[in-house]
Hints:
Strand order of the largest sheet: 4-12-11-10-7-5-6
Number of strands: 17
Bound molecules: pyridoxal-5'-phosphate
Helix content: 25-40%
CATH class of the largest domain: Alpha Beta
Radius of gyration: 21 Å
CATH architecture of the largest domain: 3-Layer(aba) Sandwich
Order of helices and strands: HEEEHHHEHEHHEHEEEHEEEHHEEHEEEH
Number of helices: 13
Largest sheet: 7 strands, mixed
Structural class: alpha/beta
Shape: globular
Amino acid sequence: xxxxxxxxxxxxxxxxxxxxxxxxxxxxxxLYDEEGKEYLDLVAGIAVxxxxxxxxxxxxxxxxxARTLIHTSNLYFTRPQVELARRLVxxxxxSRVFLCNxxxxxxxxxxxxxxxxxxxxxxxxxxxxxxxGSFHGRTLATVTAGGQHKYSDxxxxxxxxxxxxPYNDLEAIKAATTDKTVAVLLEPVMGEIGxxxxxxxxxxxxxxxxxxKNVLLILDxxxxxxxxxxxxxxxQHHGITPDVMTLAKGLGGGVPIGACLASPKADVFEPGxxxxxxxxxxxxxxxxxxxxxxxxxxxxVGHAAEMGELLNGVLQGLGAKEVRGLGLMQxxxxxxxxxxxxxxxxxxxxxxxxxxDENSIRLVPPLIITAEEIDRAQGIMHxxxxxx
Length: 388
Ligand SMILES: Cc1ncc(COP(=O)(O)O)c(C=O)c1O
């Protein structure tokens, strides 16, 4: 009988590099492999499993809804869909919501909104300014929006209309703004590239500039949203409001769901403009509602801020060149290119971390992580690095 990696080699497209482990079960912040070995998970499915693994409230919502109604299509109304939209609006800013299945799909919706808004309001302007190093998904439009050539260049010709400027550089956005500009699309903390938070004053400046030039501000909160940074949404650290916001990852706690919120100014979709067969199905929406309810009930927004400080302190003690982060989105950049080896050695020692490149590790654990678990992670990292 071939093992799981052998079967994957034969039957799965080779789209990603996987670490040599097959997980079969999880509980809280712990995962277990086929041999029953236990791992402490500081990656949480890349900022997805906000309530950890096998959370009883998610299991309850999922199984209850599975026995009730899983899918109807968007030809009809379902209650969980409208309740989720209402809850997201209550937690963020006056807007309407389009529900979908992933971050890329949420960003596709945002891009289409911007283009239609440009047709209606800016004489056909269609260019979107995004940042070098950003990540917005893997569809053709979102991979082009993302500012990383390694992900987009193999798929040329790419869609027109995306301009990339350095992050945290307001002057670069100003210089790139033309009559063709319709929107600025930013991550409030760049995630995939290795956790680069918006500098103080940057998003405020961009908001002001967008207002002055009458272009939309779209914030991709796919990774930063749903309490990850110690606020429900990262923009709330900056005293601004976007015109459009996209969500996914943590929203379903592991069940695929995405959302695009548009303020009244940007709410341009009309019947027939956009759609998604599975988007906003009652199963995913019921789970998302339970995720939001547990975050609120258990005070996980404040907890994420508190645990984020602890985790930052742990990373400071690793002798890294730089430690960056906001809430439970933390990274350490090492002077030496040993991040991938560190990741492997931690895995062997029962700790899951994410090396984003040769020099940097990213930690985006479940929001339910405890001080004791952070302590345990510190012990393993120190042992692996032979520090302390
Ligand atoms: C900021 C950001 N936007 C969009 C995406 C794409 O989301 P998905 O993989 O659900 O399409 C990601 C995924 O890592 C992300 O971090």
